[in-house]
Amino acid sequence: xxxxxxxxxxxxxxxxxxxxFAMAMSSLIALLFQGELSLMIIPQRMFAMIDSxxxxxxxxxxxxxxxxETGGISARLVSFAGALVGHFRAGLCHVTVVSAMIFAGxxxxxxxxxxxxxxxxxPAMIKAGYKxxxxxxxxxxxxxxxxxxxxxxxxxxxxxxxxxxxxxxFLGGFIPGVxxxxxxxxxxxxxRSQTLMARDRRxxxxxxxxxFVDAFWALISPVIILGGIVFGVFTPTEAGVVAAVYxxxxxxxxxxxxxxxxxxxxxxxxxxxxxxxxxxxxxxxVFGWLLASEQxxxxxxxxxxxxxxxxxxxxxxxxxxxxxxxxxxxxLAAAIILIPVLHPLALQMGLDPxxxxxxxxxxxxxxxxxxxxxxxxxxxxxxxxxxxxDTSRYVLPFLVVLVGVIVATxxxxxxxxxxxxxxxx
Length: 425
Hints:
By secondary structure, the protein is mainly alpha-helical. It has 21 helices and no strands.
């Protein structure tokens, strides 16, 4: 049944069927062919997959991103980032990356990060003469930081499926996320282009202070959210509620950019996005259950043990597999399908479950920046009004940074465990 399941899934993907329907239909085809299991398994497993307290965080963090974009928080973060790094060579590029790093501490979503920041910086960068493809490639790469620097929706999914501490994964993703941001800024600084030589004037101390005060309520939101999770004030799910309510109150009463009559429309937008995400999770739950029922984890473990006894080589094989898969399968779906397979394998290899979880999450997230299916490339290209082909021409140097951080994180566990030892242990 495994061969039929994967064959049907690949055929449907090649036909351009949306990922939700591709997973659901391939699962249905496999069950019909197998003939012994009731088709009632599909709705049962879909409901069981999303019937999780931890996953309740997803719609709330999505809604928080909508409130932040509409309520002026993202605009003030970009303005403050401009005061910090806008005067360097390739200043607008650095503003994009720093803004994404700060916004990542609130949204937890690569798509939300890319959309919120892109709507502000892309028009400014294109007006300054930057190539549309370059701008879209940079934004997609910076948007990948969103689920790496905590909070992270994909880490919430991983923790809800395996029992690995979500707070520990959040702390473990912080240093790799910062390194990715610095790496992207270095690439921009070294890029050979006259356009990238452009920089803004250096903000005066008074102007920088004014922008800091203006962005203060936006800047402390990551501190509230992450501090509350790490120190046990509230759970990641409750943190999503806190983030949404905080963003709404700031937008309504402090910045005054959200009007009461706008709230229903924002709720609808948030609900639509959250429904898309939760639908993918539900369909992937059926697909993943079929893999588990067919002993896929044991088959993969047996194959790897036959190839090599070295944990380092096994880790390399896993990373290569995830990178290739990311070129064709949307990240969240890949996570739901593979986590039940990879987590037991990591335990069998004797790896630190938190370290392994962070490495897998980063790898899956980077898939959003890899053609031809990279979701973040589609989002950024849409905002920049350019084609995926044009964006793909510029993305390679940024991918080198992302893959380099994956490798470093995989083989230098202290990049993940340092903050864990400092805060939790």
